[in-house]
Write a sequence for this structure.
């Protein structure tokens, strides 16, 4: 189902995807990438896994110059990027804070974050996603090219991290506007619940 060469054809990212690893069922993308990060993997390294049509996982290594207190806000870009990647003009994917993405109220994916603190700064931050393949396929109502979907997530994550690097926390604060009663909206009008 997933093919690194097919994903690479769709990548437009500057940093994300320089190195991509693909594992089968049972591989924990975060755990594998954490070991690679500790061994000195480059920023933008991607680990993917697929579990027999049930789940797709993706994790991306970042080495941002952040204080630990900034990581929660920085990590929300994974949820926003995931919603952008799996939504369509016809099917709105809604980010539900802090880490879920739903379509018509059903959870179809979740963002992941993992950090390795060293003092008051992380040595690395892993951002990624786990997609419930049957749930998303049902909600989208048509076949999904998973290679295109994964590349869209990686491209969106690359754009958001570049924006964050250039503009800092204002990037996320400018993209997410909190509304009364625990509702939030993302620039462009999509609403999301804040839990």
């Amino acid at each position: 189902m997933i093919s690194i060469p097919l994903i690479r054809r769709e990548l437009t990212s500057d940093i994300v995807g320089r190195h991509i690893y693909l594992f089968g069922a049972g591989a924990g993308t975060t755990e594998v990438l954490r070991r690679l990060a500790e061994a000195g993997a480059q920023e933008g390294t991607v680990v993917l896994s697929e579990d027999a049509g049930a789940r797709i996982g993706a994790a991306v290594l970042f080495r941002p110059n952040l204080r630990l207190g900034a990581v929660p806000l920085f990590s929300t870009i994974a949820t926003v990027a995931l919603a952008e990647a799996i939504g369509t003009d016809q099917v709105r994917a809604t980010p539900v804070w802090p880490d879920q993405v739903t379509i018509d109220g059903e959870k179809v994916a979740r963002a992941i974050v993992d950090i390795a603190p060293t003092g008051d700064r992380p040595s690395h931050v892993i951002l990624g996603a786990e997609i419930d393949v049957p749930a998303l396929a049902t909600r989208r109502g048509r076949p999904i090219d998973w290679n295109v979907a994964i590349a869209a997530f990686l491209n969106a994550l690359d754009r958001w991290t570049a924006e964050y690097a250039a503009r800092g926390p204002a990037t996320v604060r400018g993209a997410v506007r909190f509304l009364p009663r625990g509702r939030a909206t993302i620039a462009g009008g999509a609403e999301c619940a804040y839990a």
Q: What stands out?
A: The radius of gyration is 16 Å. The longest strand covers residues 106-118.
